[in-house]
Amino acid sequence: MEYKDYYQTLGVSKDASTEDIRKAYRKLARKFHPDVNPNNKEAEERFKEINEAHEVLTDPEKRSKYDQLGANWQRYQQAGGEPGGFDWSQWAAGGQPRGGERVYTEYVDLNDLFGGGAGGGFSDFFQSIFGGARTGTRQQRSFVAAGRDIEQPVRISLEEAYHGATRILQTEQRRLEVKIPPGVQTGSRVRVAGEGERGFGGGQPGDVYLVITVSEHPVYRREGVDLHMTQPVDLYTMVLGGEATVPTLKGRVSLRIPPETKAGRVFRLRGQGMPHLKNPSQFGDLYVEVQPTIPERLSEREKDLFRQLAAMRG
User: I need a labelling partner for 33 at 20 to 30 A (CA). Which of 44, 141, 163, 191 fits?
Assistant: First the structure.
């Protein structure tokens, strides 16, 4: 009789938790389910193996017995024993289960799916060690699984992230207009419920997630809900004081420049940043770093005045 490595079948480690085993089972069951692979005998056999492994490894008693058997089997192999010489009798279940015993699988009744009597969907190894499976009234007669979620990358501008945007999404079922809320940033996920892959056996459909990337902006640098920018200001305003016009995503505003403002000074404009995603009525701030612009194409008269100023300053 051939030994079945159920951990390898599900692709999990021998110390995997029951929840990890169930997750691995669900993933593989979706992949090899007969509804996904009609008339595919290889997928059908793989589906049987997956369910058999799940039946054993999610049942504490079966798993404990199987782990003991596996340890003995490995020691026997390491000692150089031939497969045909292993003593299976001490592990045999002693025939079919008692007439009143019922074994339930969590998601699937293999006999209903593939035909056959008691234990018909299980391997000789399973039936010899665990006594097969006798079916009775089941809580669930077929494999039920939610559909998988789908991720769709979407790129938007900073202005769209500020005001909100819409995108047209074509799914298998229909064409959708999806609203992207104000305040999203790179990495934000916009959920469209129930528009993902269809579920199996009446399971809920998955969702679609728009994964947002906000393009870099030529003027603003974003940090969370705050924006940063560099604003050129003419030399005379930096020295004598005055006002500078600053562009914001709401529109242009006036920034008061005090006399003798140093290059690199940062001014904070409250509420001129990005909206908060969870509360779009609140906004971050805009930080403006001012840099003087040097006048060009000076006339001789202007140069002479600058020379006089330089002389006056020593």
Answer: 191
